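Hi V.,

You were right to ask for the full record rather than a summary. Here it is.
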Amino acid sequence: MPEAARVLYLAAYDVSDAGRLRAALHCVRAYATGGQKSVHEVWLTDAEKGELIGDMSFILDEDDDSFMLIRLDPRQTVHTLGLGIAPIDPDWFYLG
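Predicted structure:
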């Protein structure tokens, strides 16, 4: 059976409560390959995308918090600013 394809997304959230903020950070970092503050790069299969959205909907208060998952176009060139290092696309990722 072929392995599910991963797609690059940006996961971003704005959470008003400190406890929910910590929970959201912990949840997204379980999938993240990089990020800063409340915006993270995540490579997701369709199943993982559904899990992440479901987990975040359980954590967040829909009246006070927000969450965005933005699919990035894989055809675009990666540019880094400052002392950034260009991302490497390894053959595998560890999610745990």
